[in-house]
Design goal:
single chain; 235 residues; alpha+beta; two-stranded antiparallel ribbon; 34% helix; 19% strand
Length: 235
Amino acid sequence: MTRLRRPIRALLWVVTVVVALPVLYLVAAFVFGLVPVNRQWQPASGGEGVTVWLTTNGVHAGFALPVQDAAMDWTALFPLEHARSPRPLRPTDVVYLGWGDRTFLLNVPTWSDLKASTAVYALSGLDGTAMHVAYGAPPMEGPQARRLVLTREAYQRLVAYIRASTAVDDHGHARWIPGHAYSDDDAFYEGTGHYSLFITCNQWTRNALSASGVRTAAWSPFDKPLFYQLPNTVL
């Protein structure tokens, strides 16, 4: 009987750990998502700020930024001609930027393409990362896009963070990943850092907001806390 109890206890312990860890992860994400950093942040005023957008597709958060500004010309880093069928830029166009696991971004254009092995590999932290870049019309403000007005200094810090997340060649050009796109007007580039269970695409976006001095969550592996922290601070 004693010999039988030992493997049963071991099995129960394993099951408890397997169940408890995801629960602890979700609880931590919820709690730290409610804790703000940069809580005193306020939008720039007086017409001197730079308008940017915090965006999400419902799962992955990222940014929409001015294509060309005194602080940055994104077309110099991410050339338009890398898209399959680029069109001329319009004055109101923005650049959409997002960071994430390389294999996931390149091979999972829709949720129906997701495989368990891809998800596990992404969360392992062993894979490289990529930047997803697209040019297009600015988003409509709503549940999936939050308009922010940054001081020029804050915007420069945001630009610096994104540039540091982009792998470049010896000439300072972003390292394009040819042959991969979701549509005719987007492209992928090699990123820096590693995606993991704790540094997700949303946490990358959270870190970019924090580096810019914008109010955001203490930790946010999911996109919802990023929007939750901004309801009363947007023009």
